[in-house]
Design brief:
By secondary structure, this protein is of the alpha/beta class. The chain contains five helices and six strands, in the order E-H-E-H-E-H-E-H-E-E-H. Helix content is 44%, strand content 18%. Helix 1 packs across helix 5 and helix 2 packs parallel to helix 3. The N and C termini lie far apart (31 Å).
């Protein structure tokens, strides 16, 4: 279902494992800061709500969404991090720059996940407008940061289940 038709923050809490023993790295893009800080706040709130301990969450910043992949790699290299959550926002502009950045970020984040065999979550908004970004970072469509946190917890739960 398209995100324009649902609230990204709605989830069944009974299907989310406890995050009490999980350790998270959050990498946040400074570009579009008002949006990315709202994503980070939603992410932190969701992690804590599902039992993560504040001491088990490391948050760091990179200049823009393009740098999320390398920031995620540095986080993933840390043996004390179980999952990395990448948060960013790339808004469509008048040039193809949007396409190149979004493609590079998606592929980079996927590559880091596969290289380190850890969940590396793509919490990057790719809206057409600033309004759409606001709607997905705490507005009428919820908060993609919450969705990213829940995804990280669920993936770690799945990993434990399959081990």
């Amino acid at each position: 279902m398209a995100s324009s038709l649902k609230n990204l923050s709605v989830h069944d809490a009974s299907k989310v494992p406890s995050a009490k023993k999980m350790r998270f790295g959050i990498v946040v893009s400074e570009w579009n800061e008002e949006i990315t800080e709202a994503l980070a706040d939603g992410c932190m709130h969701a992690l804590l709500e599902h039992g993560a301990l504040a001491k088990n969450i490391i948050k760091t910043y990179v200049p823009g969404s393009f740098e999320l992949s390398l920031g995620a790699q540095w986080m993933a290299e840390n043996k004390d991090i179980d999952a990395v959550i990448c948060l960013g926002c790339v808004i469509q502009g008048e040039t193809r720059h949007f396409d190149f950045i979004c493609d590079a970020v998606a592929n980079g984040i996927t590559a880091v996940s596969m290289k380190y065999n850890k969940p590396v979550i793509f919490g990057v908004l790719t809206p057409n407008t600033q309004k759409q970004a606001y709607e997905r970072s705490g507005g009428k469509h919820g908060n993609k940061g919450v969705e990213a946190a829940i995804t990280a917890i669920k993936m770690l739960g799945l990993q434990a289940e399959l081990a």
